[in-house]
Amino acid sequence: MNRDWEARVAAAWATFDDYAEDEAPAFRAVIDALAAELPDGSPLGPFERACAWDSTGRSDNAVPLYRQALEGGLADLSGYKARRAKIQLASSLRNIGRAKEGVQLLTPELDAFSDELDDAVRACLALCLSSLGRDREGLSLVLGALAPHLPRYQRSMAAYARSLVDGEEQSGR
After folding, report:
1. Is residue 52 part of a domain?
2. In percent, how much of the chain has pLDDT > 90?
3. pLDDT at 8
4. Range of the domain at 13
5. What's the mean pLDDT when you consider all of the chain?
């Protein structure tokens, strides 16, 4: 990855909130221009374009681009961006009524390498589960992700999270 290109992409994203909702095409054009600078076949282009479509409310257009990026070897360039793509793809799938595919995509991520995206995986997976009427499983994931961040009650919340899916009432003091 070219650091200059990455810096320019980051700078473009830093201006995202400066665009009004009706200016979404202008923002996507900025990202498209940056993506066009990449060599043919680079998975970074579809990834950034998917993010732009997704962030401007067009999950339907983002889904095929996330898939293209992942199938094109995004994980070989950046495991972190590949994990982001999976999280965002699952969210987009849920947004277009395909939450089951989102669950299938993110469930393996629960056992993947741990990084700062772990809680985002759990949050997005919880939303997908909820969309499928599996609220207890989703709440269990969210409570389990939240527990380590609490100043107290970590043990209790972790136990309650497990009990939601184990079916047992557990107390933790």
Report:
1. yes
2. 85
3. 97
4. 3-133
5. 93
